[in-house]
Amino acid sequence: MAEENASVVLYAKGDLRIENRPIPEPGPNDVLLQMHSVGICGSDVHYWQHGRIGDFVLKKPMVLGHEAAGRVVKVGSAVTHLKPGDRVAIEPGVPRDMDEFFKRGQYNLSPTIFFCATPPDDGNLCRYYTHNANFCYKLPDNITFEEGALIEPLSVGIHACRRAGVTLGSTVLICGAGPIGLVSLIVAKAMGASKVIITDLFAERLAMAKELGADFQLTVKKEDGAQVLAKKVKEILGTQPQITIECTGVESCIQTALYATCSGGVVLLVGLGAEMTTVPLVNAAVREVDIRGVFRYCNTYPMAIAMLSSGKVNVKPLVTHRFPLEQAGQAFETTRQGLGIKVMLKCDKNDQNP
């Protein structure tokens, strides 16, 4: 084992460094992983640019990264289901307490949950990392490490579509064709949505959405009015969508989502924007449009692995850029500029393959 654990550490707003850290020892219920592929998320970039997301504030240096897959190199004394050499996807949220949320199966809502790269918890954008073995999922041979890393964003899409009630024959509007809008699209189609329309400011993102199975694409402009866009959606779709999945967090998009959704339908808020947002609440209320939120995901990894392994979903086209770990700065800058879709960092010097 190379005695070197290069790690991408955020010291403060705008201060991103690569430093060598000790290789950690796994506890009884943990595994030591040699990291292979780690995707950069918008949240990683947000912490780098702003030093905080909402109430989560960076107060001490933190390793970034939470979309990850790697190889087991050592197992803790109590671990029986994994062995060295196993390839695994890492679910970054691990509940610390068996509280009411945990018992209800909503461990993602537990206030004390550990979550990679959310202050003060370190992430896994490094060469070696330890994680709770129960939240490491063995990958079948036909799933690559990069697909394993993409299970994290894919999980957001699964949780969103479950919460929204996407099923056979659903008509769905997705606002925003960034990584989360695109995984929501992939999952909605896999779950049986008959028609999906997706909106974005950028034509190249909508071209990717079309490739991934969107039935209709609508290019929007910043100055477009919410009610005008809602009308356009209805004209293109031929009907009002039963479900809208809002992935931007932008006030005008949330307004469009509420106006566009059919009476008795569901608006699912995935994107996070300003804490206070002005929306046509009465319009939604009198039409019995349900407004639902999501916070990350729970109980999604087994479904995601089954969907990928069976070929039911394909996330490979989402990866548009790859950088070795040593070029993390360049990789983060690429993501910040909004180039491509998903930027992947390769952490294993001897294996840079997908």
Automatic annotation (TrEMBL):
The answer to whether keyword Metal-binding applies is: yes
Report what the protein is called. Answer: Sorbitol dehydrogenase
Species: Poecilia latipinna (sailfin molly)
Query: Mind telling me which Pfam families this protein's record contains?
Result: ADH_N, ADH_zinc_N
Cofactor(s) needed for function: Zn(2+)
Question: What keywords are assigned to this protein?
Answer: Cell projection, Cilium, Flagellum, Metal-binding, NAD, Oxidoreductase, Zinc
Alphabetized CDD domains for the sequence: sorbitol_DH (cd05285)
Cellular component terms per the entry's GO annotation: motile cilium
Q: Where in the cell is it found?
A: Cell projection, Cilium, Flagellum
Q: Name one GO biological process term.
A: sorbitol catabolic process
Domain Enoyl reductase (ER) residue range list: 14-345
InterPro entries attached here? ADH-like_C, ADH-like_N, ADH_Zn_CS, ER, GroES-like_sf, NAD(P)-bd_dom_sf, SDH-like
The entry lists its GO molecular-function terms as: L-iditol 2-dehydrogenase (NAD+) activity; zinc ion binding
Tell me the protein family, please. Belongs to the zinc-containing alcohol dehydrogenase family.
Is Zinc there in the keyword field? yes
